[in-house]
């Protein structure tokens, strides 16, 4: 083979496993005025597409997963099913289409987003425009067992249920926000005759604290509105009958 020239090899028009093909050593600089080393190797899985479904590939290594077709480089296929992506990094999750930057894809299925600023942060924040609710909307209720000083955390929720097991004092709620409103269901235990006094930021009509229903298992509802963080205006709707206290 040392005396053979490359031009003497018959061209391979149809590649098949087991064919011999010339390998030209180009480890030297292309400008080097030297003869190139020519070797012979067998056409096998190193030189053709060995993956199922890989079509129009120049090298088997460019088929990273079955079903990826017509890829020039394996790096452009980040996951099977991502199509029309120029760089693998632009596909953050399968199903995200027409994205220019992976950072604009917050979740699978979000297509053609130009900025994440248009998506509301579920951890909270202000909404500048009107909000239309087309289905049910509600706030969860937190239950408090009270037999002394009761300090409600308005930063945790709007609605509460307080079960009185002794006389109690409602202290100023913490983390209140101006404009916040909600309700507090007040239940007597099975004994009844429990009373509430109010301190701090609570205010009532004519500056007079309301009178509770004191019968055993009696139920009242205290509705409130936060004028600001330090003033909670409230009104009591009394005697909703008895409620079972578990």
What does this structure look like?
The chain has 246 residues and is mainly β. It has a domain at 141-237. It contains no helices and 11 strands. It has strands at 20-25, 37-42, 141-146, 149-150, 159-164, 168-170, 181-188, 196-198, 202-203, 219-228, 231-237. It has a 6-stranded mixed sheet with strand order 3-5-7-10-11-9, with no helix packed on it. Strands 4-6-8 form a 3-stranded parallel sheet, with no helix packed on it. The protein has a two-stranded antiparallel sheet with strand order 1-2. The chain is rod-shaped and about 115 Å long. It starts with 19 loop residues before the first strand and ends in a 9-residue tail after the last strand.
Concise description?
The protein has no helices and 11 strands.
Question: Nearest-angstrom radius of gyration?
Answer: 38 Å
Helical residues, percent:
under 10%
Beta-strand content:
15-25%
Number of helices: 0
**Secondary-structure element series:** EEEEEEEEEEE
**Mind describing the biggest β-sheet?**
6 strands, mixed
Write down the overall geometry. rod-shaped
CA-CA gap between termini = 96 Å
> Structural class of the secondary elements?
mainly beta
In terms of quaternary structure, what is this? single chain
**Average pLDDT score:** 74
**Biggest sheet, strands in spatial order?**
3-5-7-10-11-9
């Amino acid at each position: 083979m040392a005396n053979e020239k490359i031009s003497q090899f018959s061209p391979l028009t149809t590649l098949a496993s087991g064919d011999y093909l010339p390998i030209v050593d180009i480890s030297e600089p292309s400008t080097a005025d030297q003869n190139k080393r020519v070797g012979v190797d067998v056409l096998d899985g190193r030189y053709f597409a060995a993956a199922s479904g890989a079509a129009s590939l120049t090298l088997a290594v460019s088929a990273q997963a079955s079903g990826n077709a017509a890829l020039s480089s394996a790096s452009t296929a980040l996951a099977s099913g991502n199509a029309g992506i120029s760089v693998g990094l632009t596909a953050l999750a399968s199903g995200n289409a027409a994205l220019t930057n992976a950072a604009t894809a917050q979740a699978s299925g979000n297509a053609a987003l130009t900025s994440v600023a248009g998506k509301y942060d579920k951890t909270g924040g202000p909404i500048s425009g009107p909000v239309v609710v087309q289905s049910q909307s509600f706030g969860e209720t937190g239950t408090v067992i009270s037999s002394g000083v009761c300090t409600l955390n308005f930063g945790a929720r709007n609605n509460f249920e307080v079960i009185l097991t002794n006389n109690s004092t409602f202290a100023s709620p913490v983390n209140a926000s101006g404009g916040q409103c909600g309700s507090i269901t007040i239940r007597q235990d099975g004994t009844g005759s429990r009373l509430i006094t109010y301190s701090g930021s609570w205010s009532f009509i004519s500056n007079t604290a309301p009178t509770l229903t004191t019968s055993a298992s009696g139920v009242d509802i205290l509705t409130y509105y936060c004028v600001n963080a330090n003033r909670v205006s409230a009104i009591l709707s009394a005697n909703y009958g008895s409620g079972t206290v578990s």
